[in-house]
Amino acid sequence: MDKAILVVSFGTSYLDALTNSIERIENKIQEEFGEYKISRAFTSHKIIKKLKEKHNIEVDTPSESLDKLLALGIEEVIVQPLHMIAGEEFTYIKNVVNKYSDKFKSINLGRPIFYYQGIEELPQDYSLFIESVKEILDKKENLILFGHGTANPSNSAYGCLQTVLQDEGYDNVFVGTVEGYPSFDSVLKRVKKRNIKEVTLIPLMVVAGDHVKNDMASEKADSWNSMFKAEGIDVKLHLKGLGEIDSFNELYIQRIKDVIAGKMKGIGETKKA
C-alpha cells in the first residue's frame, strides 16, 4: 500500500464525541477507499496534550502524521480536513501540506465544508451542505445552527450560509456563532422580530464537544440555552455533532473523490510526478 488519506480535524477531548463523530467519519472513509491507508491528525496541540494526559490517547499533529507516512514509504497522500470553514486551522494544514510538497510523489489537499459557492463549474458547497442535513432542517421547527465563528475573514461563510438557506426557502433557520458574526445578539434580534417563542439549538459543528456542551447547552448564565430562556424563549436542544449524520459525512467522501478526479481549484500547492 503506497497511498494514504490523512484525516485532519481540530480534535476533541470528549471521548463520546471522538467516537460518535470523528471515528465515524474516518471509518466511512476507510470503507470507501479501502486501497488507502487512513491516518488521523489533530490541529489542536492543546487537545492532543489533554488526551494524552487524561486518557493516555496519542494523536499526531499533521506534520508528525506525514513524517510517519514518509517513514512507511507512502508515496501519494490526500489530506482531508474535517473543518467547517477555511479559517486559521485550515490555513495551518495548507501550510504544512505545502512544506511537504517535495517529499511525496504527490500530496493533495481537500477542501473544508464551506468553500465553493456561486461558480457554475465548481461544487455548490453551501447547497450541498443544506441537502445533507435536510432530515434536520425539514422538521419545520425554528432552528438555530450554532457555529464556532472566528475573527478570520473566513467567518463570512456563516453569513453566506444564512443567505443560501433563505434562498432555498428555510426562513425558519437562523445561523449564529459563539466567537464571530452572526452573534447571539444578532440571532436574538431576528428571532424576536419574527415573534418566535421556541427554538431548537443545533450544533453547526462536526463534534458535540466543549462549545456544544458548555457554550450552547449548559445551564450557565452565559450559555445560549440560558440566554434564550432569559428572554422568555423556550429552548429545545439537539446534542449531536454533524459527524453523527451519515449523509453529512458523505460530503467528505465526495471531497476526496474530487481531489482524486483533479477537480480542485485554489486549494493550495500540490505536486504530481
TrEMBL record:
Residues binding Co(2+), per UniProt: H148, E179, H211
Keywords, in A-Z order: Cobalt, Metal-binding
List of catalytic residues: H148
Keyword Metal-binding part of the UniProt annotation: yes
Signal sequence range: none
Alphabetized InterPro entries for the sequence: Anaerobic_Co-chelatase (IPR010388)
Gene3D superfamilies assigned to the protein according to its UniProt record, in alphabetical order: 3.40.50.1400
GO molecular function annotations of the record: metal ion binding; sirohydrochlorin cobaltochelatase activity
A GO BP entry: anaerobic cobalamin biosynthetic process
Protein's recorded name: Sirohydrochlorin cobaltochelatase
Organism expressing this protein natively: Clostridium gasigenes
